[in-house]
């Protein structure tokens, strides 16, 4: 039997409040594929509701039933279930999302929402140091640094990069002769922001 809108709303509430038996009853009545279609008015899925509220038992049950792309599903604000886990400081949930076999893994940490924040950014905004440290530990930053250092830069070359500040503003930075730290464009960008 197809799930009605009311059934889907009840399912989302059950995920929000951690009512595992109600979630299991929904699956028994409507089948696992109906879990994927359940969304609230903001585009939140069963995983958003479960992860936002830290219900490990419900998450583990859902893992066996939903397709792995749902782990990276963004709601209307662009937030994934991991964004919500980070915002609400649920380390065990964040770990399970990232470590789920066959899932997106650490790539989940790179997804930005409409506000321009990644789950790591949400953890920092929530002043959740434990979670932010864990995200950084699993992001394979050392591997990226190694890949970047494999290409030698001639000291006569200029290197252009972009820096994003806490408010999401991006400023270009040029490093000349591998020693100059700030470029005119960075200083101008900062001056423009101050004059606003």
UniProtKB/TrEMBL annotation:
PROSITE patterns linked to this entry:
ANK_REP_REGION, ANK_REPEAT
**Gene3D superfamilies per UniProt:** Ankyrin repeat-containing domain (1.25.40.20)
Decide whether keyword Repeat is in the record. yes
Check the record and name the SMART domains matching this protein: ANK (SM00248)
The answer to whether the entry has keyword Repeat is yes
Instruction: Show the Pfam families listed in the entry.
Output: Ank_2 (PF12796)
InterPro entries xref list:
Ankyrin_rpt (IPR002110), Ankyrin_rpt-contain_sf (IPR036770)
ANK repeat ranges per the UniProt record:
77-100
Q: Which UniProt keywords apply?
A: ANK repeat, Repeat
Q: What name does this protein carry?
A: Uncharacterized protein
The species this protein was found in: Pisolithus tinctorius Marx 270
């Amino acid at each position: 039997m197809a799930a009605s809108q009311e059934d889907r709303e009840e399912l989302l509430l059950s995920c929000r409040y951690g009512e595992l038996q109600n979630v299991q009853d929904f699956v028994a009545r409507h089948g696992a594929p109906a879990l994927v279609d359940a969304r609230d008015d903001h585009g939140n899925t069963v995983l958003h509701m479960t992860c936002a509220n830290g219900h490990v038992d419900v998450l583990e049950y859902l893992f066996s039933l939903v397709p792995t792309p749902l782990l990276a599903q963004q709601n209307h604000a662009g937030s994934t279930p991991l964004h919500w886990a980070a915002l609400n400081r649920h380390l065990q949930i964040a770990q399970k999302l990232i470590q789920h076999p066959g899932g997106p893994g650490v790539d989940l940490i790179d997804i930005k929402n409409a506000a321009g924040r990644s789950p790591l950014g949400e953890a920092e905004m929530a002043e959740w140091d434990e979670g932010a440290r864990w995200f950084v530990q699993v992001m394979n930053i050392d591997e990226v640094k190694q890949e970047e250092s494999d290409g030698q830069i001639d000291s006569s070359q200029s290197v252009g990069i972009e820096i994003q500040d806490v408010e999401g503003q991006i400023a270009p930075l040029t490093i000349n002769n591998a020693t100059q730290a700030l470029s005119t464009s960075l200083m101008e960008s900062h001056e423009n922001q101050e004059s606003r």
